Amino acid sequence: MTERMMSKALEGVKSFAGKRALITGASSGLGLEFADLLAAQKVNLVLAARRLEPMEKLAADLRRKYRVDVLVEAIDLASPGAADRLKRSLDAKSAPIDILVNNAGYGLHGDFLETAIERTVDMIQLNITALTELTYLFGRDMAARRSGHILLVASLLGFQAVPSYAAYAATKAYVLAFGEALHDELRPHGVVVTSLCPGHTATGFDAAAGATASSLLRLLTMKPRPVAASGIAALSKGRATVVAGLANKMVALSNRLTPRSMQRATMRKIIGP
């Protein structure tokens, strides 16, 4: 998606001006783009991630650029009970959340048995448990107010089993199924739930996962801003799911037409060993 296409995607999108959004994983990657795009709509923000310094810099930039209120919460969401601590902190500051962007997460590349189980469990804690707890805690408030929006960042890898990303892809399959179910469950309560499924994106994902992108995967790589824009546009339109990018949409569609064994073999070739 080019910048022009991104702008077109956001045309006619309902503005979230005056709302407050909580963005997790806000210190880098997609989190930065979500923050900038929402602040441009005059949305007040809460940035939550482990690293304080980059968030403080981002907050200062957004306050100066868009004249919005930005709170910063330095927290390790992979630690047990972190979601509850974050909710209590925001309650104490009288900062109700209208938009939850559940973006925090990371992947681990490599064979399952060759990866330390402690790292896999930590990833599951962040990608699944923290995301679920945050959705519950803030979703309850939204349902009580009969108004709210929740964006869950899943992945294109959530549509199939992926050798070398076995546990990560499984966590994103959970996020995708969880989000689609909640889309129907919470809609009668005035809450929109949308699952965003990016493909390979130019963030720090590969470095964190311990992976090197194959030449084919590099050709399919999207910039983070249009990915974030597609998620915000879909959320504002009340969609259940959005796959970012035409090529990624074709991959997701092909999974409906091919045997699962072929899907695994294809993903092994695209991602590489």
UniProtKB/TrEMBL annotation:
<dbReference type="GO" id="GO:0016491">
    <property type="term" value="F:oxidoreductase activity"/>
</dbReference>
<dbReference type="InterPro" id="IPR002347">
    <property type="entry name" value="SDR_fam"/>
</dbReference>
<keyword id="KW-0560">Oxidoreductase</keyword>
<dbReference type="InterPro" id="IPR020904">
    <property type="entry name" value="Sc_DH/Rdtase_CS"/>
</dbReference>
<dbReference type="Pfam" id="PF00106">
    <property type="entry name" value="adh_short"/>
</dbReference>
<feature type="domain" description="Ketoreductase">
    <location>
        <begin position="19"/>
        <end position="199"/>
    </location>
</feature>
<comment type="similarity">
    <text>Belongs to the short-chain dehydrogenases/reductases (SDR) family.</text>
</comment>
<dbReference type="InterPro" id="IPR057326">
    <property type="entry name" value="KR_dom"/>
</dbReference>
<dbReference type="GO" id="GO:0016020">
    <property type="term" value="C:membrane"/>
</dbReference>
<dbReference type="InterPro" id="IPR036291">
    <property type="entry name" value="NAD(P)-bd_dom_sf"/>
</dbReference>
<protein>
    <submittedName>
        <fullName>Short-chain dehydrogenase</fullName>
    </submittedName>
</protein>
